[in-house]
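[Q] Does anyone have a clean structure-token version of this?
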Amino acid sequence: MKDRVRGVLDSGKVNVDDPAPEFELPALIGGVRKNFRLAEYRGKSLILAFYPFNWQDTSVRQMAAYQAQRAQLLSRNAETVGINVESIMNTTAWERANGPFDFPLCSDFWPHGAVSRRYGVLRESGSEAGASERAIFVVSPAGRLVLCKTYEPDETPSLDDIFPLVEKI
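[A] Here you go.
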């Protein structure tokens, strides 16, 4: 039984109603390098926005749209958190070129893709192996997952579908 349970926990697949896997990552928060700890945001809804790479047009559009809608999220006791596998230095340069972004931008660089793997969105094979999928996870104020959704690499996930969900939790 222990081996079966351990295998399930180690699989990296998370589902709605699961506790959100805890993590700590280096991040830019309002342009300042800090550590982001999921546990420190308990009591607030979080939109974890995994994206493959910084320097993609889709990623720029996605994060710019989230910045534009940030006030609406904050008024609903929610925050966006961008996560990708690029280094914090790469993310800093990208944010300076394309921002500013006031929400946390996390670097899942070392150990490479560990958080993406825990959430089940690290690409393990193919031409973009090592990058995360473009995915959205909504974490309730109690720390449980209420939405887990992946998108096509060039699809820009909209927060319009997220607002009604955040209002309910």
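[Q] Thanks! Anything notable?
[A] The helical segments are 2-10, 57-68, 70-74, 88-98, 114-118, 162-168.
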